[in-house]
Write a structure and sequence with these properties.
The chain is about 30% helix and about 30% strand. By secondary structure, it is an alpha+beta fold. It has a domain of about 90 residues. Strands 1-2-3-4-5 form a five-stranded mixed sheet, covered by helices on one side. Strands 6-7 form a two-stranded antiparallel ribbon. α1 packs parallel to α3 and α2 crosses α3. The longest helix has 14 residues.
Length: about 130
Amino acid sequence: MEVFGDERAEVVRRLGAWAESAVAVSDDRIVVTMTGGRIVEIVMNDEDLEELFTGWGYIDGVVAETQRLLATMPVDCNCLVMDQYCLVPRRTPEPVADWARPSGVVGGEWVVLGKDGEVVSRFADWQDKD
C-alpha cells in the first residue's frame, strides 16, 4: 500500500477534532495541542504511517491508538516517536536507539509472553545474515 497525503491529512484532521488542534508542520512531524495546553510532537513519516495502518487497521485504528497514547502519556514525555511498528512516548523527538543486540548479532524471535513475563509460545527464530 502506498500512503498518500490524503491519509496523512485525514489523521491530522481527526486528531485536531479530538484535541484542541493538530498541525502537520513537516512531512514527518505533527504537533498536537491537547486540551489544557499540553503540546505533543508526533514524529512519523509516510513509511511510519503505512506501518501503523498495517498494525492498527488503517485510519480509524491509527487515530484511536494515537488518541489513547496521547491521553495516557507520562507527564515527562512530550513526543510520540515510531519504534518497530508503533508509536512510543519519549522525552525528545530523536529516534529510538537501534535495537541490534550489543554482541553485533542481528536477529530475533516472535514470542507470546505470559502475565509474569515468561515465554508461553514461540512463533519463529531467525537470524539476519546480511
